[in-house]
Amino acid sequence: MELNTIYKNPLRVKARVAYIYPSTYRVMLSSLAPDIIYTISNSIEEVYAERFTNKRLQGEEPPPRSLETNTPLKDFGLLVTTLHYEPDIVNLIRLLNSGGIPVKREQRATPIVAGGPVVMENPIPFSGIIDVFVIGEAEATLEGILVKWLETMEKKRFLEEVADLPYVYVPGFNDGVKVVKEYVRSLDNATYPVNQVENTEVEPVYGGGFKLEVSRGCRFWCSFCIESRVFQPYRERSLPLLKRLVEDGVSASIWGRRVVLYSLSFPVTSTHLKLLEYLGSENIRASLPSIRLSALSSEVLELVKSVGQRTLTLAPETFTPVLQRVFFKYVDIVDEMIESVKHALEEGFNVKLYMIYGVKGEGVDDVKANLEALKQLASLARKLGRGFSVSLNPLIPKPHTMFQWIGMENPVKLREILGLYKRGLKGLVDARPYDIEWGFIQAYIALSGRALDDVFTKVAMRGGGLAAWRKSLGEEYMGAGHVFNGYGFGDELPWGFIILDNVSRRVAESQYEVFLRLTGSKKAT
Questions:
Q1: pLDDT per residue over 386-428, tens digit each?
Q2: Fewer CB in a 10 Å sphere around the end CB: N or C, the chain?
């Protein structure tokens, strides 16, 4: 049974809006974005926003009906969606198909508005399907979009009006115009969903609890991270507000005194530490995001223990000095990183490590150095009786990062490197590799300079999944030049009209130049 669902009389509102989360219901419950969008949309008296999700991620999708009133998707005048993962566009298309709604924007009377990090990084691949791309954060943009819809209530007029907003890209209406990201200046003044939708029968992916966004953006500029670009600048909520949100949120939550913390980098400020102190003193349990290794002091570990967290997710990415310089994350502190992980194990924590492999220029010696470090840590974990697992992830190039000019390593080389890790860690470490092919598909979409609606439609018609992607891409599958070669440094980029901020481009250029010096190449190939 759902709690905190919003119900309105559909006959007493001017606009019924469908919010589509293109993944499963359980994944939607685990994300904070749907709660924010649901709250903002329904705070407008004349709007009733109802939610839709996929029943499954592959195969035929049943005709979609809203969670609130069981109304068919085709009965809604405006569709709003968010894309957090590039292949989720296929799930959106599967819902449109099963709901009898034309997929291509030029054939559809109902406009689709899309936001989210995937849209903000590069809207071009989705431009044959989506009518309106919102480059910015929901709290600063969504109400303006919905007001435009209330004023027009017809697709062509709506597109003409909304195209005038500086943070909106409307294919066919404002092509060639710079689109500037709009964002919340102060999180303390932003709408926050205290009464979050929960379900007594469905536990979210990260466990039940009140979802608390501590900060947004990141203080660091890791060279591979797209989220640090699309969510800049760094902002955090004040401690008094965080305390008030926790008090109100846990009171309204079915999960009792437990919170799930959201932050791209944690705990890296005094506010973060004081929040942990407060949670521990109030006997409130917490699920923490990935913890920055350089923040793993004895004080932090004690605070983490005080909120009941027993497993730490840590992301060293690599234990080799050269690659750390390439990643711009933990430069010149490799030995300290290893000691920090050891310290966490000795303090009684289970550890999950996130590693990245397959950067162009990475050699066998780099892999051997990482294997040596992982074996040391695994041996200590086994000796102490601690859980220890490693997630192995291929480097996936994204727009607005230096890897847009470098590209992804060849799949054959990636499989060779992954094979070295698997053989070296077999029997010692719980190694969990991310599928190389899914990594390629993410990069294929993210770096595309053309609309991919025909590809997406073929994949959806085949039910989704890797087999569907292989068949739909044909000869281009695992052989796309823009993925493996990157774009020319200095050339105009397909997504160059998207202005995220004043510094991301300069940071990416500087990091790319450092990469070339470190690898000794003129252009990575």
A1: 999 999 999 999 999 999 999 999 999 999 999 999 999 999 9
A2: N
* 57-104 confidence digits (pLDDT tens): 999 999 999 999 999 999 999 999 999 999 999 999 999 999 999 999
* Closest C-alpha to 329, from 301, 355, 363: 355
The pair of structure tokens assigned to 500 is: 């995220």
**Beta strands at 215-216 and 235-236: parallel, antiparallel or unpaired:** antiparallel
Phi, psi of 22 (to 5 degrees): -80, 60
Based on DSSP, count helices (H) and strands (E) in the chain, helices before strands.
Answer: 19, 19
Beta bridge partners of 154: none
Dump pLDDT digits (tens) for 121-163.
999 999 999 999 999 999 999 999 999 999 999 999 999 999 9
How far out from the chain centre does Cα 446 lie? 13
Residues 6+ apart with CB under 8 A from 246: 210, 212, 259, 278, 279, 282, 284
Q: Which long-range contacts (CB under 8 A, 24 or more apart) does 156-165 make?
A: 158/78, 158/111, 159/111, 159/131, 159/132, 162/132, 165/141
